[in-house]
Amino acid sequence: MAATEPRTDHVLQIGMGSDVPLEEAFADSYALFNETTRRYMEAYKQLEEQFEFLNVRLEETNRDLRDSLEEKDRVSNYLNNILESMTDGLLVVGLDGRINLFNQAAEEITGRSQEEVLGRTYEEVMGVEDGREKSVLHTLDSGDSLVNQQKDLRRTDERIIPLGFSTSLVRDGNGIVLGAIEAFNDLTAVKRLESQVRQTHTLAALGEMAATVAHEIRNPLGGIASFANLLERDLEADDPNRRLVRKITEGVSRLNRIVSSLLSYTRPLNLNTHPVDLSQTVEEAAAFFEIDSNRQTPDVIIERRFAESRTCQVDTEQFHQVVLNLLLNARQAMPEGGTIEIELTSRSAEDGDWALVAVRDSGIGIEAAILDKLFTPFFTTKEDGTGLGLVTSRKIVEAHGGRITVDSVPGEGTCFTIALPM
Q: Which residue range forms the structural domain that includes residue 100?
């Protein structure tokens, strides 16, 4: 009996005793694979769409963030430009009293740079000589603002200047205090103008009074002079009383000169101006003075420093009087002799072009307490002075639309500067 051959039917054992043909199994598997692939493709496509959406959102967010940062930079630069362009000084201190903001105007007013100021305490930089209650530290301690206050500041060059200032607290959006701010400005020019206004009112009142007094004095003076002349004529040539009468006559003459100066000061100026070469006009006055000075004080030397010619509208005669008066004062300030320097320069400013005439001596100088009184009528430090020379000179200069200033250091000399519009 022949051996039994194994069956060659292609069947697949599936499950518990199930037999599935191989072709059908492959077909089912292929269909399942296709379905799975389709689902994966759909899922990938969804992921790709989500990725694209997120990528677009990310780009928009980055763009918005970039725009926001640029806007913040623009705002920050704009605010910084405002702070640096302010004419008032501005500083901000933190809660520890250290300065963390100091603008350009603050540098110019105090004479200190930002590099040496930032991070230092307020006391080190600004000082508290006028008391802590007159500083931003008072606002930081108490929370009370200071408005339109005044104090003195010692600059780095040791010059003391008057300051006007205001303070207030610095808060964030939630009202939390971050520090305090102080805004300040230099009041030197304002104080000078106030002094000039007070002096102008004083001079006006004195002028009115002087005009009245001068007229009242001149009439009796004329009578005294006439009687003194008659008395001298009646005395013998060798009579010792003639010397006393002559003293009366000299005194009357001096009083008459003072009265004439008073009337000249109070009388309105009628200028006869025309375009002149200022260097030529000053040279004429200096040459005339030099002749007289060599005769009286030969040890006085006049140095001229004239730049190119400057043309100004000037009443030559009146301006000669001003220059001669300044040269005379300079000579009297150097009893032992010395050098008088006359310098002509120019300056351009916001209010126009100016020609400057400086008369500088190497004399004894003027004390600070006297400087403020120099242009006050009847104030003089000379035994035979009337106290009207500088007052009249300033009146003439101001009538020309100019101004006259003085700088002096005791023991080193004095400089009078005339500024005339060109």
A: 86-186
